[in-house]
Design brief:
The protein has 231 residues and is α/β, with parallel strands linked by helices. It is globular and about 55 Å long. The protein has a single domain, classed as Maf protein, CATH 3.90.950.10. Helix 2 packs across helix 6 and helix 5 crosses helix 6. Bound molecules: inosine 5'-triphosphate.
Length: 231
């Protein structure tokens, strides 16, 4: 996959076609996150800050489960954003993310959420990952890994833009720390001795895959609508 982070978005004219309020000046922006993963919603709110009002889909039982049939994080993010924005008014952002481990050929990748079965806990996913690496006696550089995040922004069934982020690191020998979610306790970002499960959330938010992608999303959204003293 292209190592350069990508972000693609519609031209200003096209944006105004699908999002007529794009040039209105507002003091805070509402964003629906097309996810039932409350950890993602919480991180997105934390990273975007108080100028954004973020809400996920927990409790929105009428929105059907979206089949993630894409072959990349971006394709899956697009599928989720388009499907949910057809059902709900306003701006919808979808996050598709996961962990790629080099020695496993990029697995679990887009299958990160279901790596150990549809109803597996985070601990079971981590257990499976560590045992796969033990089988391969993967050490040092062979444990290289990265988290990727693709965000897709949509309104009324139209994609306005996609924004990617990545953070490089390696898989720790054992799970450490109880912060974050998913594979955080086994992910050692480059340059740190602590896993994402041990680092303070504010630290993870400085450079995580999700933070990198959200920085681009915010740069796309903020000049259009939000007035702040320090935009
Ligand atoms: P939605 O599709 O409803 O958004 P999901 O959890 O199924 O929720 P994904 O299909 O994008 O979302 O799978 C992402 C998985 O990748 C997630 O469940 C974690 O296991 C892992 N993951 C993604 N970002 C992570 C992070 O910041 N820290 C730890 N694990 C992460």
């Amino acid at each position: 996959m292209d190592r350069n982070m990508q972000h693609r978005h519609l031209s200003a004219d096209e944006v105004s076609k699908y999002w007529p309020e794009a040039d209105a000046t507002i003091s805070s922006m509402q964003l629906i996150v097309a996810t039932r993963n409350a950890h993602k919603t919480c991180e997105i709110q934390r990273i975007l800050g108080p100028k954004f009002e973020v809400r996920g889909l927990s409790g929105d039982d009428e929105i059907p489960e979206i089949h993630e049939s894409g072959k990349s994080f971006e394709e899956n993010a697009r599928l989720k954003a388009v499907a949910v924005s057809r059902e709900l008014p306003g701006l919808v952002v979808a996050d598709d993310s996961g962990l790629e481990v080099d020695v496993l050929g990029g697995a679990p990748g887009i299958h990160s959420a279901r790596y150990a079965g549809a109803s597996a806990t985070d601990n079971e996913k981590i257990g499976k990952l560590l045992s796969e690496l033990t089988k391969l006696t993967a050490k040092g550089g062979q444990r290289r890994a990265r988290f990727r995040c693709a965000l897709a922004l949509a309104r009324g069934g139209h994609i306005l833009g996609t924004f990617d982020g990545v953070v490089d690191g390696k898989i720790a020998d054992r799970a450490r720390g109880s912060r974050g979610f998913g594979y955080d306790p086994v992910f050692l970002p480059n340059g740190f001795d602590q896993t994402f499960g041990e680092l303070a959330s504010a630290e993870k938010d400085r450079f995580s895959h999700r933070a990198c992608a959200l920085k681009k999303l915010r740069a796309f959204l903020s000049p259009r609508t939000i007035t702040t003293e320090r935009n």
